[in-house]
Write a structure and sequence with these properties.
The protein is of the alpha/beta class. The protein folds into 3 domains: about 1-205, P-loop containing nucleotide triphosphate hydrolases (Rossmann fold), CATH 3.40.50; about 215-280, Helicase, Ruva Protein, domain 3; about 290-355, Winged helix-like DNA-binding domain superfamily/Winged helix DNA-binding domain (Arc Repressor Mutant, subunit A), CATH 1.10.10. About 45% of the residues lie in helices and about 15% in strands. The protein contains 15 helices and 12 strands. The chain has helices spanning about 30-35, 45-50, 60-80, 95-105, 120-130, 145-160, 195-200, 215-225, 235-240, 245-265, 270-280, 290-300, 310-315, 320-335, 350-355; strands at about 5, 20, 25, 85-90, 110-115, 135-140, 160-165, 175-180, 185-190, 205, 340, 345. The chain has a 6-stranded mixed β-sheet, with helices on one face. The chain has a two-stranded antiparallel ribbon with strand order 2-3. Strand 7 (about 160-165) and strand 8 (about 175-180) form a beta hairpin. Helix 9 (about 235-240) packs parallel to helix 11 (about 270-280). The N and C termini lie far apart (about 50 Å). The structure holds adenosine-5'-diphosphate. Adenosine-5'-diphosphate binds next to helix 2, helix 4 and helix 10.
């Protein structure tokens, strides 16, 4: 049900494996799609190799780093498990990495599961009751956990106890089971969907924001060094400004540019290799990919700039609403290309300009 591993072994707990939940068995591939479809399967080994192991290697997000290091140092000084931690932000910004860092820094092991995998309270009871003192439990996509499991989690987080229900109907009894002190690290791309009682039980909440190009450049320099890739500053800079503020995308683009450099270029990642490779992969100068551009195009061409509801927009680009909302939209909003209004999504002047389209007369947003 969960995967347990020691920190520093290079495993990241998201390999392909089978998960069993009573009558339900999920393959690793299905889980990947449910939990983190945003990371491609082939990337997992590379990602594991590039993941910073300790807080000192974690680039950017200075506030989160400082706050988390205080939480961890205080726990170490008190020789207690740190408070539960909630990590919130779009995919690829380092939530899983931070969960692993918490375990690594506390010198404890990490158990990994995900909201969609916890469909019954019993699934969670089995995980919780097998935890050991000081262990870190990482629940990815925690907002997708079943409601009954959520309620069980409240008690586990606060009182380190689970009530195991034995029997059914009026004869059912709850047998309390004490749990060891553990730390829950929850990750969500949709903190707004978390019920307040669950949110309130986290002692520390970190909101991960998109990275600056300068921080992404540092990520890229580190990755190029670790992967033994020859690069020039201008090449890495070009990649950093087109990575949508996201380390996962920066590392992915680095690998694609390396392909271009090796096959068509000089073998070195220079500006020419970066520009040409990113053209091949349809990543434009703002870092928008095909999905982002389809969203903008549908919004402007088909709906005259909006307002359009999220569901309609998602159907029109042939994607799930969740993907549009958590992957595409946050970046388009941050870049000032669309805005969210109570009536729906609306294209801004920057969006029309980016698509090189004429803004309709009397257009209001
Ligand atoms: P999330 O769980 O938020 O989707 P991950 O933690 O899996 O994101 O991060 C994706 C990849 O990006 C990791 O493999 C790691 O190599 C890289 N990464 C993320 N954050 C950082 C960071 N702050 N510094 C360096 N690399 C990072």
């Amino acid at each position: 049900m969960t995967e347990s591993f020691e920190p520093g072994t290079g495993r990241d707990g998201v390999d392909s494996y089978e998960l069993e939940f009573g009558d339900q068995t999920m393959t690793g591939a299905e889980r990947e799609r449910l939990v983190s479809g945003r990371a491609e399967t082939a990337e997992r080994d590379d990602e594991a190799a590039l993941r910073p192991k300790g807080l000192a290697d974690f680039i950017g997000q200075p506030k989160v780093r400082e706050q988390l290091s205080l939480v961890l140092d205080a726990a170490k000084a008190r020789q207690k498990a740190p408070d539960h931690v909630l990590l919130s932000g779009p995919p690829g910004l380092g939530k899983t990495t931070l969960a692993m860092i918490v375990a690594h820094e506390m010198n404890s092991s990490l158990r990994v599961t995900s909201g969609p995998a916890v469909q019954h309270a019993g699934d969670l009871a089995a995980i919780l009751s097998s935890l050991e003192e000081g262990e870190v439990l990482f629940i990815d996509e925690i907002h997708r956990m079943a409601r009954a499991a959520e309620e069980m989690l409240y008690v586990a987080m606060e009182d380190f106890r689970v009530d195991v229900i034995v029997g059914k109907g009026p004869g059912a009894t709850a047998i309390p089971l004490d749990l060891p002190q553990f730390t829950l690290v929850g990750a969500t791309t949709r903190s707004g969907l978390l019920p307040a009682p669950l949110r309130d039980r986290f002692g520390f909440t970190a909101l991960l924001d998109f990275y600056s190009s300068a921080d992404l450049l540092t990520v890229l320099q580190r990755s190029a060094r670790m992967l033994g890739i020859d690069s020039e500053l201008a090449g890495l800079e070009e990649i950093s400004t087109r990575s949508r503020g996201t380390p996962r995308i920066a590392n992915r683009l680095l690998r694609r540019v390396r392909d271009w450099a090796q096959v068509r270029g000089s073998g070195i990642i220079d500006e020419e290799a970066a520009t040409n490779a990113l053209r091949v992969y349809e990543v434009d100068e703002l870092g928008l990919d095909r999905l982002d551009r389809s969203v903008l195009q549908v919004l402007c061409k088909r709906f005259g700039g909006g307002p359009v509801g999220l569901g309609t927009l998602a159907v029109s680009v042939g994607e799930e609403a969740d993907t549009v909302e958590t992957v595409s939209e946050p970046y388009l909003v941050r870049e000032g290309l669309i805005s969210r209004t109570p009536r729906g999504r609306v294209a801004t002047t920057a969006a029309w300009n980016h698509l090189k389209m004429q803004i309709p007369a009397n257009y209001e947003f």
